[in-house]
UniProtKB/TrEMBL annotation:
PROSITE patterns xref list: AH (PS50870)
Key word Acetylation present: no
GO annotation, cellular component aspect: cell cortex; cytosol; nucleolus; ruffle; trans-Golgi network membrane
Main localization (coarse): Golgi
Subcellular location: Golgi apparatus, trans-Golgi network membrane
Protein name stated in the entry: ARF interacting protein 2
Species assigned in the record: Gorilla gorilla gorilla (Western lowland gorilla)
Lineage start: Eukaryota, Metazoa, Chordata, Craniata, Vertebrata
Keyword Membrane: yes
Keywords on record: Golgi apparatus, Membrane, Phosphoprotein
InterPro entries in the record: AH/BAR_dom_sf, AH_dom, Arfaptin_fam
Superkingdom in the source lineage: Eukaryota
Length: 374
């Protein structure tokens, strides 16, 4: 029905005189009723627009002659008075020639407290990113200056020597740990071979009457070696576990503090250099404020640097004491266990494990928890 109405309206023409004014034609009552029915039912406002095509501006709040209403995808040309009435009844908004809608004037809704909170959070995040960017720039500049020999750096010779010694010690202990794990793997393979060989000798002693005594002696010897090997393997495992804890936990924790100290040292030197450059510049009102701000920031980074330097010194001291205590015990255990094993002294080997409170796990037993190993 709408297409028929619009089609009928679309065929209407408005004659134009030479002076550019539109001449009123007799109005079609049927078209008026049809358009009124469309306006009452409501056009599709999402597709409604008014395209400027007239010859003059609107006067007294009326829509100029020759404008079209796009309704349901089709343009309807109507007279000015009737167009204004229909638009007011339907609430159709008037659009500019480019198609951008001009809505009726309305009061702006005030922002609620949620908007204020969101703006506050966004401002805080922006400040964090800004500070991070400035700090990263200054530290990168300082690092490059040190690498190319143009900048100065703060050096604590005694502490730097201890840190370098710690890194070298850690590398050597990691090598010992790797070799200890390899020894454990070889001992386990040797035990499996000895166990299989003892079973083979025992089987042959039953099937070879003429060599029963000789096969029996060798079977008993392999079983004894296998038992002593399990005791030695338990001692070596305890040694490797202790070295692993010392390297991957105690030394690594100290080196993490060292990394924080080195980062704080770089920041301290970066802001120190920035403060020195500002101090050499002109002293005006703007520079004085920047100098005071740089002085406060420099002091904060100086306090952080000195605190971490003290933490590193304390941790290095405790690490050295702990390392000596742990390694004294573990090296004594390793020596006694290996000597007793290769001497064939089963009693001394068992006493060594009892001395260091090492409990052997029976075959097939589950691995104890970390707390049980301590």
């Amino acid at each position: 029905m709408t297409d028929g109405i619009l089609g009928k309206a679309a065929t209407m023409e408005i004659p134009i005189h030479g002076n550019g004014e539109a001449r009123q034609l007799p109005e079609d009552d049927g078209l008026e009723q049809d358009l009124q029915q469309v306006m009452v039912s409501g056009p599709n406002l999402n597709e409604t627009s008014i395209v400027s095509g007239g010859y003059g501006g609107s006067g007294d709040g009326l829509i100029p002659t020759g404008k079209s209403i796009s309704c349901a995808g089709r343009e309807v040309w109507v007279g000015p008075q009737r167009c204004l009435v229909y638009l007011r009844e339907a609430g159709v908004r008037e659009l500019d020639p480019l198609g951008s809608g001009r809505h009726p004037s309305h009061s702006t809704t005030p922002s609620g407290p949620g908007d204020e909170v969101a703006r506050g959070i966004a401002g805080e995040k922006f400040d964090i990113v800004k500070k991070w960017g400035i700090n990263t720039y200054k530290c990168t500049k300082q690092l490059l200056s040190e690498r190319f020999g143009r900048g100065s750096r703060t050096v604590d010779l005694e502490l730097e020597l201890q840190i370098e010694l710690l890194r070298e010690t850690k590398r050597k202990y990691e090598s010992v740990l790797q070799l200890g794990r390899a020894l454990t793997a070889h001992l386990y393979s040797l035990l499996q071979t000895q166990h299989a060989l003892g079973d083979a000798f025992a089987d042959l002693s039953q099937k070879s009457p003429e060599l029963q005594e000789e096969f029996g002696y060798n079977a008993e010897t392999q079983k004894l070696l296998c038992k002593n090997g399990e005791t030695l393997l338990g001692a070596v495992n305890f040694f490797v576990s202790s070295i692993n804890t010392l390297v991957t936990k105690t030394m690594e924790d100290t080196l993490m503090t060292v990394k924080q100290y080195e980062a704080a040292r770089l920041e301290y030197d970066a802001y120190r250099t920035d403060l020195e450059e500002l101090s050499l510049g002109p002293r005006d009102a703007g520079t004085r404020g920047r100098l005071e701000s740089a002085q406060a920031t420099f002091q904060a980074h100086r306090d952080k640097y000195e605190k971490l330097r003290g933490d590193v010194a304390i941790k290095l001291k405790f690490l050295e004491e702990n390392k000596i205590k742990v390694m004294h015990k573990q090296l004594l255990l390793f020596h006694n266990a290996v000597s007793a094993y290769f001497a064939g002294n089963q009693k001394q080997l068992e006493q060594t494990l009892q001395q260091f409170n090492i409990k052997l796990r029976p075959p097939g037993a589950e691995k104890p928890s970390w707390l049980e190993e301590q």
